[in-house]
């Protein structure tokens, strides 16, 4: 799933490509991805792209005051095309194409989603705050307003909730997903199961600084990269996420994994849990 650093880089890359360009039309190839009906998708036709920005993990295209908002979900992506087909995209349930944006010179964007689980979402709205997911976003962790005191309040309010979940919950902190929460907790040497309100003042400061450094470094690495290179860049710089069975780059221990629901987390026991492996409840049930 694209998270804050990748969506930030996408916004920068697309802003440079699209700024001042006119949209001829937007074709919807998978109608389940379009979540709004007023304004209609045709309201974007003829509009000029005045900017591309990010809200958490949402992309926001300002088209002459009407906003095309995109959430890429788990397997969505945006692909730049120097030339797109002249004929409108046809609905096809087997194609990864969800939507296509056609620009005035024949170039455009293909918005795609891999796999059979379709959760990519497109919204056409007058104001980004009309999108429920944006309206309920927590503070952006790279904004100046995200202070240590703000984080301390979030953790205290979360009570005994596991810190991994607190970092991923978008209404609490915007933009952090499964991958970067693993990386942040590894860099801060904290267990993903640690209760949110158990952190000392020092640990809150450490976590705050680590959130900003891990995300800030990822944004810096991704800045200027085209969309086609962002996934590879993200994967190649992960210390523990997606690295189960590999050696921890800090201590050399084996990176472990815990499964939950339809996802998993990765961590280093030596760096994060005092050498104690975390219980994998799903695997425990399978072994019974």
Automatic annotation (TrEMBL):
InterPro entries documented for this protein: DNA_glyclase_Znf_dom_DNA_BS, FPG_cat, FPG_N, H2TH_FPG, Ribosomal_uS13-like_H2TH, Znf_DNA_glyclase/AP_lyase, Znf_FPG/IleRS
UniProt name for this protein: Fpg/Nei family DNA glycosylase
Cofactor(s) in the UniProt record: Zn(2+)
Listed GO MF terms: 8-oxo-7,8-dihydroguanine DNA N-glycosylase activity; class I DNA-(apurinic or apyrimidinic site) endonuclease activity; damaged DNA binding; zinc ion binding
Cross-referenced PROSITE patterns: FPG_CAT (PS51068), ZF_FPG_1 (PS01242), ZF_FPG_2 (PS51066)
Keyword line: DNA damage, DNA repair, DNA-binding, Glycosidase, Hydrolase, Lyase, Metal-binding, Multifunctional enzyme, Zinc, Zinc-finger
Catalysis performed (reactions): Hydrolysis of DNA containing ring-opened 7-methylguanine residues, releasing 2,6-diamino-4-hydroxy-5-(N-methyl)formamidopyrimidine; 2'-deoxyribonucleotide-(2'-deoxyribose 5'-phosphate)-2'-deoxyribonucleotide-DNA = a 3'-end 2'-deoxyribonucleotide-(2,3-dehydro-2,3-deoxyribose 5'-phosphate)-DNA + a 5'-end 5'-phospho-2'-deoxyribonucleoside-DNA + H(+)
Organism lineage string: Bacteria, Bacillati, Actinomycetota, Actinomycetes, Propionibacteriales
UniProt similarity note: Belongs to the FPG family.
